[in-house]
Amino acid sequence: MKKKLVALFSAASLTLALAACSDGGGESSGSSSSSKEEEYPKSNLTIVAPSGAGGGWDLTARSIGKMMNETKIIEKPITVENKPGGGGAVFMATYATKEAKNDHMLMVKSPPILINNLKAEGNSPYGYKDTTPLAQLTKDFGAIVVRADSPYESLTDLLDAVKADPTAITMAGGSAPGSMDHLITILPAYEYGIDPKAVKYVSYDGGGEAMAALLGKNADAIGTDISTVAAYVKSGDARVLAVTSPNKVAIEGLEDVPTLYDLGIDTEFTIWRGIFGPKDMSEAAKTYWVEKLTALNDKEEWTAELQRNGWEQDFRVGDDFTTFLEEQDKMITEILTALGMQK
User: pLDDT per residue over 45-71, tens digit each?
Assistant: First the structure.
């Protein structure tokens, strides 16, 4: 199972794919494709982060919107909206149905768009096939985090405590059991010889809420993405015990944090994030966003933004992104089956 997890998440990279619209409706009668593109966008654009503020989806959506506008790749204002609930499943239901033709609304997602659709408990009937995948731009890594005043000085200290009494330690994350943060949390425990089903895990809606639970002493440790924790480490509120990247990360304040490999835990975990358009997105809108996202990927300002957030640049677009998602869908099915969580 470990090899499957490594293959699944280390192969993945954030795929940003945005879709924009040519005012809904029927076929063009005599207007050229270029004139269609000039008509789009007709109104302001929205990128939805299907979680609370402060988590990886939220940071990704805000970075995309800010960079698109600041670099003038897109002139229309881009608004970010937070739509938390069910680890992204609540808004996914709305997006796949009521917003299926809304070319002016995009959505940031990551592995949960697959996981929530495939797992038995709390699963979503909607998945990536109910969207228009556009592009993947970055990848991020997981982190095991404690409060600055935590008695656990290392990840092995924490895992030894869990092994001694799993009921005494509360682990948390910003996604439901069987989803991304849960897998980040239980993977080191599993490799350390702990029954993953015995780990006490509490789920929250997004990395920001999970961090609030940690700082509010409602959890002993959380599994989340590195981009969520860097600011809290810098402020002195939190410490990172380990990162799930293959190598140490070049992020200010985290340069010396050990990888799981450094601790003798032979695994890693990489997170991709991407942008999706609505299921019935127009071809004009899809073409527009693929072009704009490709332009963004080439900007030095975007590369600098990724570095500030601790993300790595990793770009797939259009059909390449869709093919990647098809492969990941098959792998996740196998992994959840091994965990007894497949629907």
Answer: 999 999 888 888 999 999 999 999 999
Structure tokens at 230: 């860097």
173: phi then psi, degrees, rounded to nearest 5: -165, 170
DSSP codes of every residue in 108-141: EE-THHHHHHHBSTT--S--GGGEEEEEEEEEEE
**Distance between CA atoms of 245 and 242, rounded to whole angstroms?**
9
| 112 cis-preceded (ω within 30 degrees of 0) | no
Q: What is the pLDDT of residues 97-137, one digit of tens each?
A: 999 999 999 999 998 899 889 887 766 899 999 999 999 99
Helix axes 283-297, 56-70, angle to 10 degrees: 90
**CB atoms closer than 10 angstroms to residue 156:** 17
259 close to 244: Cβ distance less than 8 angstroms: yes
pTM for the full model?
A: 0.71
Residue 59 sits at φ, ψ, to 5 deg, of -65, -40
DSSP letter, residue 258: P
Contacts of 137 by beta carbon, 8 Å cutoff, 6+ apart = 13, 14, 15, 16, 273, 274, 275, 293, 296, 297, 302, 306, 313, 314, 315
